Amino acid sequence: MIKAKLLLPLLLCGAMEASAGAKQERAIRAMLAAQVTEWNKGNIAGYMNGYWESDSLLFIGSKGPTYGYTATLNRYLKAYPDKDHSGVLTSTITSIQKLSGKYYFVVGRWALARKAGDVSGAYTLLLHKIKGKWVIVTDHSS
Length: 142
Prior knowledge:
The chain is of the alpha+beta class. It has a single domain (2-141), classed as Nuclear Transport Factor 2, Chain: A (Roll), CATH 3.10.450. It has four helices and six strands. It has helices spanning 2-40, 44-47, 69-79, 83-86; strands spanning 58-61, 64-67, 88-100, 103-113, 119-130, 133-141. It has a six-stranded mixed beta sheet with strand order 2-1-6-5-4-3, with helices on one face. The longest helix has 39 residues, at 2-40. The protein is globular and about 65 Å long. The mean pLDDT is 91.
């Protein structure tokens, strides 16, 4: 009986932690889905809402690293100047890994169906919870 009384709080703590982790993962998935929605509207600025608005943001693409929110936004605007180039984005998350209560690592695949020619690749994202909001602080897309 005493062992059961000691075990119950541990089980409850584990269940609460799992529930909190599931809530965080749902929030991350919702933010990433909102990015896809904005992209497919042709709203690159709306897509950027998923990124950390900081000079410390790091985006790594095929042409190397880009540092900062504004530089990343300008990179997207130059690479995808119109709907023919931005096309329709699909994103498939293959893994979400909790690193800590404030950091998650996401792995996935992306594809653009577009008039300018279809392209696809993979991505890794480091997400950080800042002021109650999940944002991408590092994006490596290839």
